[in-house]
Amino acid sequence: MSTRPNPPLKCLPSTPTGPYLAEPAPAATGGGAAKGVAEGVPTAALPDQQTGDGRYALAWLTISAPRGAVPTATSICACGRNRFAAGHRKALALIEDHTRHRDFCPLRTHQEGAAV
After folding, report:
1. Residues 6+ apart with CB under 8 A from 82
2. Total domains in the fold of the chain
């Protein structure tokens, strides 16, 4: 078998010998959209898709019950109430207390004169 000759490789031109400045880009002629851009397509940003409906969270109940560990519960309300319980019975009692607090929270009962 005979060996094939190596194909010529592309090579870079010789290294410049001095510093050169970049040439300015050609000035754009005419206004309007660039070539290839669809005409008549709105470019304005879309409105926020998650606009509020006037509701917001007042009370949060966080329960953590990993397998083989002590369950915990935390009840936090915007009125300033902050409760924590560790253990199965205490966590269940806090869940009931959190539900009861929703009916008597001062932030919820002042809305339109009745509880929401």
Report:
1. 74, 75, 76
2. 1
